[in-house]
Amino acid sequence: MTNFDLTPLYRTAIGFDRLADMLSTASRVDSSGYPPYNIESLGEDHYRITMAVAGFAEDELDIVSERNTLTVSGNKQDIAQSEDSELLYRGIATRSFERRFQLADHVEVEGARLENGLLHIELKRELPEQMKARKIEIGSGRLIDNEDKAKAA
Asked: Which of 93, 1, 88 has its CA nearest to residue 51?
């Protein structure tokens, strides 16, 4: 059994803290590993999931984002074998699949594209304005509390 060290994900991928945790858990339970995928950090708040889905057409793939869960599924119809040929070895996986990713808060799917057998899903983390860091100016005057405001009015 292969163990993967996902510690680098905790340090470098902002927004994927829980995803790294889930991947670690999933790698112990789900050993199929199909389809293989990569998770990339493209910048401070941009990410990409790339999945190898060779043999799948766009209409055979579904991407659903609901709350903090991203579900990618592929439904491949069995190809009928012609009568004049015999399959000696099947090395190209064309089975149906469903892969779930747990996204961090405020991570949204920007889009997806299928290119050369790779499905690229672009993600962006957008913090609400009230959660962003803001600089507080230090004033030289004294603070007026609510009682002083009431007396002034």
From this structure: 93
Quick one: CATH architecture of 7-128?
Answer: Sandwich (2.60)
Average pLDDT along the chain, 153 residues, taken 10 residues at a time: 57 54 53 82 90 90 90 81 76 82 88 93 84 77 60 61
Instruction: Report the first-to-last Cα separation within the chain, whole angstroms.
Output: 74
36: preceding bond cis by omega (within 30 degrees) = no
pTM for the complete prediction? 0.61
Contact criterion met (CB below 8 Å) for 109 and 65: yes
Task: Name the nearest CA neighbour of 57 among 114, 102, 18, 97.
Answer: 114
SS3 34: coil
Residue written as token pair 């799948």: 56
Tokens at residue 101, please? 């990713």
